Amino acid sequence: MSDHATRLFIERGFEETAIADVAAASRVAKKTVTNCFARKEELALDHQLDHQEEFVAGLARTVAGRAAGESALVALRRECLAGVERQDPVIGFAGERFCRIIAESPTLTARLRDLHDQREEALARLLAEEAGVANDDFGAYAVAAQLGAAQRALFQRIMRLTLSGLPNADIVATVADDARRVFGLLEASFGDYAVRAGG
C-alpha cells in the first residue's frame, strides 16, 4: 500500500491524494488502508522514516547504547556521522522526489516537525531517568533540545541540498563537515554531560 501511496503522492501531491485513491490503486477497501495506517501522513513517511516509532526512539536508543566513558553528545555525533556515510533515509537522505513531497505539503512538514519534537522528548526522558531526576527535569529537556536541534538542522540541510539537485556524494561530504562543526560547537557545553560510567 505504501508503495502505491508514494507513487500517487509523487504524481498528484500529498494534499491532493485521498485515502480512497490509495485504496483504489492498491485494490483494497478504504477500511483496509485505515486499519493499517491511522493517518495519511503515516503512508507518506512509512518507508522513509523506517516506521515512525523507530524514528522517534532513535536518539534515545543511540544514547542508551553508548559505550562506557562515552557522553550522550559523542554517541549522537558518532551515529550521525555513520548515518551520513551510509546515506540513511532516517537522517534525511530520502531522494529528491520524496523531499519535494514533504516540502510542498504543509501537513507533512508539520508532521515531520512533530516527530522531531517527539524524538527530543524521548531523549529527554532517557537522560532524566539515567540521572535519577524527575521525568520533566528542565536540565534534561534543555540538553535534549540542543542535541535534538543539531540533528533536526542536519536533517533539514540534507533535504535542502537534495532539492537543490546536489548529488548524494557531494551532500555526504558537505553534511559530514556540517555535523562535525555543529557537534563541535556543542561540545564545550555538553561534551561531559551524561558520560556513561566505567570509562
UniProtKB/TrEMBL annotation:
Keywords: DNA-binding, Transcription, Transcription regulation. Residues 1-55 form the HTH tetR-type domain. Residues 18-37 bind DNA. PROSITE patterns: HTH_TETR_2 (PS50977). It holds the Pfam family TetR_N. PANTHER family: HTH-TYPE TRANSCRIPTIONAL REGULATOR BETI (PTHR30055:SF234), HTH-TYPE TRANSCRIPTIONAL REGULATOR RUTR (PTHR30055). This is TetR/AcrR family transcriptional regulator. It comes from Streptomyces cremeus.
